[in-house]
């Protein structure tokens, strides 16, 4: 009830200090959008002054909510998804929301189960990064609970979507290599025949940068890699070297691939960046501690997590209306020694 005590302070006490009704205090706490800013400030100041704490469990029960949201990702062993999960958890904490994490391993049946599982009744909504499902499965994403999509498999779908600026970021990364004098830039992580997906979009940006620079596209510089792991990056790098392919730079389509390529180059006695520059994508924590430190694209992970949580909770609360929105996160190229040598700037 409205007057129940939280640590000795009641909502009635907050209302009295702020000079408003208990209903107004409740509206501020629950994020009601149509409150005058000065009123909201008075209520928040009174909450801070009195140390009032909201009973989140009771509030969720009144509102028919669980206070939990789901996060489904392909693989937590990949540093990007592990760090994304951490970012989502931290973005949800200020809202008093717990995150239930599920791993799909990019298996179609498990991704379908995520959408239909009885576990959805335990959560108020879902943040979902599918890999096995694609545009042809669009109708399966028409669900009766709030959902936010991540990734590059579903565009213009029936749910809010937060994603990376893959094409533009890959173009900027490749441009950096070109401007540093590299002309034979290999790509590790390509997926043959893929037209929609992360690999296809990043290769598209790579090819645009080559065209901008007047450099020819050579299919021999595209190295296939199925799963984007360190081991597959190293194997692809060894194949390129064994084939005698002339290269002076490597663009790993994620940091795991780039780190694997870096290890293979070291094993073959190839100097980085003197002989071959190496660049990755995702800017995971490991990138800064590689030898040499890895230049990488920071794709806006914190922004992606924060935006996804806010969009989802707005749908849960019913304060967001209208058609689904698509949000592209900002990116930044973090230049380190793997492309610029010992004089690399901290940021680019």
Automatic annotation (TrEMBL):
Record domain HTH lacI-type: where: 9-63
GO terms assigned for molecular function: DNA-binding transcription factor activity; transcription cis-regulatory region binding
SUPFAM superfamilies in UniProt: lambda repressor-like DNA-binding domains (SSF47413), Periplasmic binding protein-like I (SSF53822)
Keyword set, alphabetical order: DNA-binding, Transcription, Transcription regulation
Pfam families for the chain: LacI, Peripla_BP_3
Keyword Transcription: yes
Protein name: LacI family transcriptional regulator
Lineage per the UniProt record: Bacteria, Bacillati, Actinomycetota, Actinomycetes, Micrococcales
